[in-house]
Amino acid sequence: MIQYKFSYLMYLLYKHIIKRILFMFDPEFVHNRMLEIGNLLGRFSVTRNFIKLLFVREFDNLFIEIKGVVRFKNPIGLSAGFDKEGNIASILPSIGFGHAEIGSVTLYPYEGNSKPRLKRLKKSQSIWVNYGLKNDGTRVVVNRLLQSVQPNFVYGLSIAKTNSKDTCDENQAIQDYLESFKLAVQQNIFGYITINISCPNTFGGEP
To answer: Which of 12, 13, 33, 138 has the greatest CB tally within 10 Å of its CB?
Structure first.
């Protein structure tokens, strides 16, 4: 009962106060600040456990198992694109997700498209994203995750090809994917891997 009351209170605070404040700032600025807060809260077991106490509810009928290998505590996951570089992997299990997909990552790091690359579309209550696969590179992200993933939680990794004119060539693109895949599967931390082949805001466009 306490959890439900807290959740409803948070909903009211966000809808009527926090959202209005956040919408006064650039969306990428807000996104980055949320990542910083999530990273800070995820560093310490005391903060992870406290937040878990407030947000996590587990129900047996939401449990999902795929081919006896991947086991999700619930079907709600954080999709790729929010935590591109694995900065908040530690806190994600504590806020109720059944899994989280990190990335997309690419073999080589890329600073992303020029700003602005996030825009709020208020009428459709959505957001326009044009990051251009900004990320620190597969090796760096995987090594970061080795230090932060939590047990008994499913992490996925989304792999894309490096945003470069060199990977417009089909053979180079395939090799780029393959090398990232090898780096990912060397470590036993991912429940699944997604291959991202449909990012239109990159060199060469959508294949």
So the answer is: 138
